[in-house]
Amino acid sequence: MERKISFYDLREALAQPGCALCRLRARTADQVVEAMLWEQVNDPGLRRRVRQARGFCHEHAWLLVRQGASLGVAILLRDVFQDLLQETEEAPFQPPPPLSLRRVQEALDRSRPSQATADLVARLEPRGPCPVCRQVEAMEEVYLQTFVEDLLGEDGLLGDLLASDGLCLPHVRRALALVREEEAFRALLAAQRRIWQELADRLSESIRKSDYRFREELPGEEAGSWLMALVAVAGASPAHERLWATATRTGQSP
To answer: Are 60 and 30 in contact (CB under 8 A)?
Structure first.
């Protein structure tokens, strides 16, 4: 059977710690940023999308901080600031009439958005998605579809899933939303339940060993289970990767 490249990417990612789809999402984001900075920084289409998005989302903005990136970031963000300066030039302050209901409501509720600045606030909103998010989400959909389609069958991904840390809860939900066949539904759910049960058992053991009566016992498989649990419910993050890297260097559980 001829497999897609995304199948082999998934198989490789499932063999590594954490959620495979989170790992592939992070890898895709890194590749997108590299291409933007070194190959596309003068592309009119990219620069237009960056201006429309008012730059980048918080996550991907900080992904641009890397060796040798200063010129590319400067070029892309100068465009953004030129747009912001144009939008804010002679921006009017437009308060409601003194005796209007809106004026009274704003006086009574200081958390209510100000009508005087509402027009400018709207003009400063992004007019398009973060350009990195846009590409990452498209690739993430490809991986999700491949995961569901190739979970079962000869040399499918089910065995890799069972041997892995499983998917994070957000990716479990997204994968289940694409399942059309009961056999795949049962297999995916059973695999994740087994992985969650093993993690719950490790957390229980970690809690037990925190009791002063058992503190002399050496750490076992439960070490680091709290961090694995965070990844399992929320997805991986760069901070998670750094913690594991530190633990690996020091030989200690994070």
So the answer is: no
Q: Specify the residue for token string 């069972």.
A: 162
Structure tokens at 12: 């490789």
pLDDT digit string, tens, across residues 17-26 = 889 999 999 9
Delimit the domains of the chain by residue range.
Answer: 5-89+126-250, 91-125
Does the global pTM surpass 0.85? no
**Tokens representing 146?**
């491949």
